[in-house]
Amino acid sequence: MLKKQNIAVIGSGFGALSAAIRLVSQGHNVTIYEKLDKPGGRAYQYELNGFKFDGGPTVITAPHQYDELFELAGKKREDYLTFVPLDPFYRIFNGNGDHFNYWRDQDKTEQEIARFSPSDIQGYRIFLNKMNAIFEWFHPFTEKSFSTLFSFLRIFPYVFKTGTWRSMYSFASMHVKNDFIRKILSFHPLLIGGNPFDTPSIYGLIIGFEKEWGVHYCLGGTGAIVNALCRVFEDSGGTIKLNTEVSRLLIEKNRISGLCLANGSVVKTDSVVCNGDIAFCYKHLIPHENLPRALNLWLNNIQYSNSLVVIYFGTKKKYTDSRLSHHNLILGNDYKKFMKDVFSRKKMPRELGLYLHMPSATDPSIAPEGCESFYVLSLVPNLDGKIKWAEIIDDYTDKILNFLEENYLPDLKENIIVQHTVSPLHFASTLNSFKGAAFSIKPSMAQSGYFRPQVKSKWFKDLYFVGAGVHPGAGVPAVMASGKIAAADISEINQI
After folding, report:
1. pTM of the model as a whole
2. Per the structure, how many domains does the chain have?
3. How buried is residue 321: exposed, middle or buried, by Cβ count under 10 Å (0-12/13-18/19+)?
4. Domain-embedded: residue 80
5. What is the CATH number of the domain that holds 57?
6. What is the per-residue pLDDT across 123-137, written as a single tens digit (0 to 9) for each?
7. How many distinct helices (H) and strands (E) make up the chain?
8. Mind giving me the DSSP string for 347-374?
9. Could you read off the pLDDT of 49-94 as tens digits, one per residue?
10. Domain containing residue 479
């Protein structure tokens, strides 16, 4: 029998909703506190002049994770949402403008490889077989806590056996020789805030997620998923309070006992699930006198992910004759130097590394009739780079739009009728991301598994974290899994 709790959830992103729906279905009193005017967190959806722009995640895999949440509420996902499979998953462009269609079907992908480097087909087959093996071995661990070092060390014999301690780019380079094909086989860490040249290839299990369950788009955008999950949560008895910022956590004898809201009111709780950035929470929501020195030192020595500049824009014309697909990656020729500038040197690279999202190619409802909807994401350093974003953002935005106009979208600037730009300052101030890191803590071997912050805080009782900064990491499937882990941990601890 479970002890019924009053549980506060800070934030309303995918991790929060994953945990909250599970907890309310178990009979707990659950309230979500969201500082913004709409739910979603990084998945916030902007609505501007008839256009809908998904603020953050756009790649949807593992549909069964959503099915689980609807089933807990006695409902069917298909009654709320329509998922559309995308194929190719991505269209990837090199610095010369040549493109590669990244298909789910292996034969089609091999045909693409043959266009660039026929001799690499056999190497690709070996690479893919190894990625499938990595997925089969490691993906069960993405829904479990590594509460002890021993539990994490159990996987290391397999890590050494498979060579998955190598970086994604190095692992790909062992199997294929063409540099463009190497980039294509190793770009996935970019989806979770990692550098392909130093992120261990254990994270190649992302490829397995895509191959196993496909890449999908939800009609209405990612925001439609957020809205549907919020409906399910509220229909199950949960409460969502928007425009309600948490300013401080209340602590009694090293346990979290409640929240202090920005409006001055106090909420007493039994447990708190924080979907906010873990470093921000510890540094800004915990009173300084309660923050252990060792914890503060640890937070300052963690490596954080890159940041982003994101331009959301809508055009008054359709680009039906463009070379673009739904998901597009544009990789420059000086790829390694670009990654070093962004992740290590923390300086503005000369080249651009872009992800261009064109959802209206699949879903006309996302834009007014006859219009096209886009967002372009540019990889940039986090705020450790000391870049004066307030001074340069306009020029940098022009640089990106000029590049797209010259290479992919003719007459773009004269056809833009709505535009919204966010910089690393937005991630730091609006989304409370420490150092403006768009994906929180950087994925690395030293910051994975047991060595990554766990869902259950080891510093304060009754405090749990979900989201990109904790195990299993960034990316929607991992964030959703963190919510599942949190709900399981709370329920197990409070059984009577």
Report:
1. 0.94
2. 1
3. exposed
4. yes
5. 3.50.50.60
6. 999 999 999 888 887
7. 17, 19
8. S--SS--EEEE-GGGT-GGGS-TT-EEE
9. 999 999 989 999 999 999 999 999 999 999 999 999 999 999 999 9
10. 6-85+217-301+443-493
